[in-house]
Structures are given as C-alpha cells and as structure tokens.
Amino acid sequence: MPSPREECLFCRLVAEGDHVHSADGFVAIRDINPIAETHLLVLPQRHVDTFKEVAAFPDDEAARMLRFVSETADVAGLEDYRVLVNVGAGAGQTVFHLHWHVLGGRPDRERIVQALEATG
Ligand code: 5GP
Ligand code: ZN
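Above: inputs. Below: predicted complex with guanosine-5'-monophosphate.
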C-alpha cells in the first residue's frame, strides 16, 4: 500500500478518523455536512485523486471496495440508498482523495440542488 499523503485530509481521516465501519484497506465515516438523513463517505486507504485513477487499484482491491460500499450501507441499516462519486471539480468534487458517498433516508433536497448548482 503506498504511504498516505501528509497534506491529504482523507488520508488523515483514514488513519485517525471516527470510523462507522472499517475493513482491510477501507473505512466509512459520517459526512461533516450531510445532504441526506444518513450520509456516509467510503474512503479507500490507497490514495488516488479521483475515480479516473481506479485502475491503480489491483482487481481484487477494486472488487473489495465495491463490496465494502455495500456492507457500509448494511451496517448503517439502509435498505434503499444512493451511491455517488463526484469525479473532478467540474462535477462537484472538492476533496481529491477518491471517495464514495452513501446517501440514505430523507434527502435534504435544498442542499442537493445547491450542490448540483455549484457545479454550474
Ligand atoms: P466531494 O464534494 O469531494 O464529492 O465530497 C467531499 C465531502 O467531504 C463533502 O460532502 C464534505 O461535506 C465532506 N467533508 C469535507 N471535509 C470533511 C471533514 O473534515 N470531515 C468529514 N467527515 N467530511 C468532510
Ligand atoms: Zn489521500
């Protein structure tokens, strides 16, 4: 596993955050500014800037990442939910360490609209 980037917020939260769920190489945390009743972020320990670089994950690790996203929703007790990845600043990505949003329960529609509008 490559070493964490010192300047990266999510590398730091992988190492020392408040984890809702964790497994080999992955953690889930609560989003600090939720846009739904339940808003979790799945962070891989491996730092890549965006989803575009998902090929940097060995195949087994990429498969485990998807399973971990699904497990995280289970652990949070979500039956129906959304999984979202913002890819690039133009699509609303603000933290450049790949992460998966897991959104469940009542959405905060106003904040979702604001987030979409912010991307122009
Ligand atoms: P993005 O906009 O890059 O797809 O998502 C970044 C997410 O990280 C945002 O939903 C934002 O609220 C969340 N976030 C930013 N800083 C922190 C932090 O310090 N702690 C946590 N838990 N979430 C954060
Ligand atoms: Zn990072």
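DSSP finds three helices and five strands in the chain.
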